[in-house]
Every structure is written in C-alpha cells, then in structure tokens.
Write a sequence for this structure.
C-alpha cells in the first residue's frame, strides 16, 4: 500500500505546533494582560510561579514541535518539504527567542520577587513582552505553515 503523504508525521507536527502556538498565544492574550493589571509584587511572584510550572511543559512542546516538523520535512516531497523545512527553522527561532530573550529576564524577575525590582525593571518587562510577542508570532507561523502542508495538493500515484 502506497501512502501519498506522511500522515503520522503530519499529524504529530499539527498537534505539537498547534499546542505550542496556542499556549503562547493564550499567554500573550490573557496572562500578559493580567500581569499588567496587578501590582508589581504580585506580578513578580505570579510570574515566577508560572515560569516554574511552564518550564517543563513549554520546553517539551518546543522540542516536540521541532522534531515533528523536521520529521515531516524529511518524509515529505516537493513544496510540502520546503514548507515543513521553513517551519522547522522557525521553530528553532521560537526556542532561541525564549532561551536568549525571555529566560534571562525571567531570572531577573525571580530575584525581584524576593528583593524588589531593579531601577530599570519597567524597561526589562517591556523587553520581556516584546520577546514574548516575537515568539508568539513565530509559534503561530509554524502552526500556519504546518496547516498549509495539509492543504497542499498531492500528486496521486499513477496507476
């Protein structure tokens, strides 16, 4: 039996990238808004607790998104391979933005929850939000690209 598309790889990439994009989008739309509405000491305490709880889950989602997109790119052909390959590269950007942008600021926020904020805390919070918006955009783009791979027309095998 000849399967025209790598369905399992496609399903895994759809699931992982959808969960990742959805989680980051939810955080950007709801949690970030809530952070802005509470006093800074509450924000720092909640932010620290949330990042501790999210750490394993979000790292697992980022890793599974990368691996599933990569497998889809390898198992696919033609335009689908290119789209999945681009999604794979952008999934690396999500990780890089998180690791190099958000995580160092999370460490600062963890200190602020105990000892109080530094003088430039407002600027750092704005930077954290900008990094978060960038990774939301990238994660959602990965999902859109993987959805696109499911919509690309396939060439039916000749009989």
């Amino acid at each position: 039996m000849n399967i025209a598309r790598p369905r399992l790889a496609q399903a895994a990439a759809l699931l992982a990238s959808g969960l990742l994009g959805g989680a980051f989008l939810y955080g950007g739309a709801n949690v970030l808004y809530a952070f802005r509405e509470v006093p800074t000491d509450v924000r720092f305490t909640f932010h620290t607790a949330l990042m501790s709880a999210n750490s394993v889950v979000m790292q697992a989602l980022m890793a599974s998104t990368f691996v599933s997109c990569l497998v889809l790119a390898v198992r696919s052909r033609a335009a689908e391979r290119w789209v999945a390959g681009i999604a794979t590269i952008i999934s690396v950007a999500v990780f890089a933005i998180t690791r190099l942008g958000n995580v160092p600021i999370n460490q600062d926020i963890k200190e602020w929850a105990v000892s109080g904020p530094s003088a430039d805390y407002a600027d750092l919070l704005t930077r954290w939000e900008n990094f978060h918006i960038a990774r939301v955009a990238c994660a959602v783009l990965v999902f859109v690209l993987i959805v696109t791979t499911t919509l690309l027309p396939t060439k039916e095998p000749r009989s």
The mean pLDDT is 91. The first helix runs from residue 7 to 37.
